[in-house]
Amino acid sequence: MKPLALCLSALATALFLASLSVGPAHIGALDGLSALILGGDGPEPLVMREIRLPRALLGVMIGASLGISGAALQGYLRNPLAEPGLIGVSGSAALGAVLAIHTGLAAVTTLALPVAALAGAGSGVLLILLLAGPRGGSITLILAGIAISALAAALTSLVLNLSPNPYAASEIVFWMMGSLADRSMTHVWLAAPLMLAGGVALLTLGRGLDALTLGEDAAEAMGLRLARLRLTLVLGTAAMVGAAVAVAGAIGFVGLVVPHLLRPLVGARPSRLLWASGLGGAAMVLAADIAVRLVLPERDLKLGVLTAIVGAPLFLHLIYKTRGGQT
Amino acid sequence: MRGCVRLSRLIALGLALALAGATVSAGPAPARVVSINLCTDQLAMMLAAPGQLVSVSKLAADPHSSAMAREARAYKANHGRAEEVYLLDPDLVLAGAYTDPATVGILRRVGLRVVQFDTVKSLDDTRALITKMARVLGHEEAGAALIAEFDVRLTRLRAGETTHSAAIYHPNGYSLGNGTLADDILRAAGFSNVARELGLRGGGTVPLERLVMAAPDLLIRGTPLPGASRSEAVMTHPALAALTADTAGLRITSPDWICGTPHVLDAVETLVTARGGLR
Questions:
Q1: Nearest C-alpha in A relative to B224
Q2: What's the pLDDT score for residue B246?
Q3: Interface contact flag, B207 A24, Cβ < 8 Å
Q4: Among A94, A114, A213, A290, which is least packed, fewest CB within 10 Å?
Q5: Residue B248: which pLDDT band, with cuts at 50, 70 and 90?
Q6: Rounded CA gap, B259 and B254, in Å?
């Protein structure tokens, strides 16, 4: 328990520092950190504080959001395949964000962007819960997810294609795959409050999710209020995923891979898996964001590409494993 | 009488032969010209005789892309599609070197004459482009006059020495380096190009971090386009705002920079004026 928390925190911290030290401008790691903390003359403090710090912070925040949301959804649906990206929650959030930007609402009030993404993500979660039902059979869940993702992606593309801006259509890939390139502290402040609120909400679900592992009847006999848990889950997931997608696009598979890897280490208890997945998710997104800057520095390789390369084979493996139980 | 007629016929024949000899490469001047490329649109509008140019591309009337948007409204707009171009019944189609090969191919297959024009990589290339356009339109004297005017103005504008650095920063961090028209425009106006010094050849992205580290004296950005986009959001990044607080920022409309026409000198002149304000 304690050692795992320490290990994951150390890993995330190390990757956070590495993320601050990686970038196209040639700044030594120590010089960079001193410029970040102490400031000074020249362009280094500007690069460190306005470009690299927000990028690293967003990596932590978005990774934690996706990890915790994935763990919570999987705990509630008791299905290891439930992941915000795969079941269409991220896609719906992207649709909400794109609508806010391209209707001009986001220009009127900055809060419109994360709130619209939250609304999109919320409707995605609600739809999934309605379609998949409380027990969430794998096939129904995945089919519902495919349908919602496809619809959200199509509508997102439509909105971007209809935009009068010539660059909008080329940004479809950003909303589908996600990137942290050229984000600023503005985005950090935009996402932080919602993520914090969502995180607090989801972390309180630990005990309820633990009880739910015994089955719904047993959990309700133990005094669990299922309707309230569901509402908290929907709002918490929508806030975290919505805020993440609003600033960085939809990054898939983080909420699938991280809980899967950590589940055996926490004794398969959903309450522990929640915070562990938060730390693990932060580490995974930071690592992916470091990799995109090292592999193809000039090309703005999308984060979702890397997470999918890691996540999709695992997803196939999980489908293969759950196949026996379904038939 | 009869002899007279014969003589006049002979003279007419002789004249026709002489004229044919003079324009042997181009044949008789085309009567219905259709242009389907933004840059050939502009050169053709400058050099064609009244009524000779029938249609220009839709982009030519877009003030964000075209330096001659107002003039272009006098012509019928086309979308560069083979079918509509064919229906305009042209005897000459002007296209860019990178016009969709499928479109060019099908126009040639249905028997139309298509002349393609290269994109320019320097101010000097502009002269060759004007000459070529004047020749295919059959107005060589007009072309020569345009070039002479171009040379006089360029000589007057060209800066003797490089005194400041400048960087071009377009949405998505796109910039222009060595071997581009924009690079040549910057240098003619007395600026060193930061993107070229960072090793950029042709067009490509310059990471925001490296731009901030290079701290150019002048930052050249396009004017915002209608609608919103994430690509343009980088233009309002706080780091860029901090950079322009220390250096000079210049928001320019880019049409003058796009095509190899005498309008490139308007770009040079804007820069020369901006340089005068820097110290």
A1: A165
A2: 67
A3: yes
A4: A213
A5: low
A6: 10
For chain A, the 3-state helix, strand and coil shares in percent, each to the nearest 5, are 80, 0, 20
Q: In the listed set B130, B153, B176, which residue is the last one of a domain according to the structure?
A: B153
Q: Which residues contact A82 (CB under 8 A, 6 or more apart)?
A: A70, A73, A74, A76, A136, A141
- Residue B11 counted as domain residue: no
Put simply, whether A52 touches B (Cβ < 8 Å) is: yes
Q: How many CA atoms lie within 13 A of B155 on its CB side?
A: 6
Q: B191-229 burial, b for 16+ CB within 10 Å, e for fewer?
A: bbbbbbebebeebbbbbbbbbbbbbbbbbbbbeebebbb
Residue B251 carries which side chain, given as an amino acid letter?
A: R
The answer on B167 and B117 residing in a single domain is: no
Each residue's pLDDT tens digit, B127-136: 999 999 999 9
Q: Which of residues 147-176 of B touch A (CB under 8 A)?
A: 171-173
Q: What is the pLDDT of residue A321?
A: 83
Tell me how far apart the alpha carbons of residues A314 and B127 are, in angstroms, rounded to a whole number: 60
Summarised one tens digit per residue, pLDDT across range B69-82 is: 999 999 999 999 99
Higher model confidence: residue B35 or residue B23? B35
- A145 lies in some domain: yes
Q: How many residues does chain B have?
A: 279
To test the contact with chain B by mutation, choose from A19, A20, A44, A51 the residue with the greatest count of B C-beta atoms within 10 A, namely A51
A40 touches chain B (CB under 8 A): no
The answer for residues whose C-beta is within 8 angstroms of residue A122's C-beta and 6 or more apart is A234, A235, A238, A242
Q: Are strands B53-57 and B33-35 parallel, antiparallel or unpaired?
A: parallel
Residue at a domain's end among B153, B175, B196: B153
CA distance B34 to B48: 11
The pTM score is: 0.83
Tokens of B175: 């910039």
**Is A182 in contact with B173 (Cβ distance < 8 A)?**
yes
Q: How many residues does chain A have?
A: 327
CB of B47 within 8 A of CB of B130? yes
Q: How many domains does chain B have?
A: 2
Domain that residue B58 falls in: 29-153
Alpha carbon distance B173, B231 (integer Å): 8
Q: Do residues B185 and B143 both lie within one domain?
A: no
Counting as low any pLDDT under 70, the low residues of chain A are 1, 134-136, 324-327
Please tell me the distance from the alpha carbon of residue A223 to that of residue A234, in angstroms, as a whole number.
20
**Tokens 């975290």 correspond to what residue?**
A240
Helix H or strand E encompassing A52? none
- The verdict on a CB contact (< 8 Å) between A171 and B243 is no
Given a cut of 70, is residue B7 above it in pLDDT?
no
Q: Could you tell me the maximum CA-CA distance found in chain B, to the nearest angstrom?
A: 88
The amino acid present at A94, given as its one-letter code, is A
The answer to whether position B8 is within a domain reads no
DSSP line for A188-248: HHHHHHHHHHHHHHHHTTHHHHHHHTT-HHHHHHTT--HHHHHHHHHHHHHHHHHHHHHHH
* Positive or negative: CA dihedral A68, A71, A74, A79: positive
Residues of chain A contacting B228 with CB distance shorter than 8 Å: 101-102, 104, 106-107, 163, 165, 168
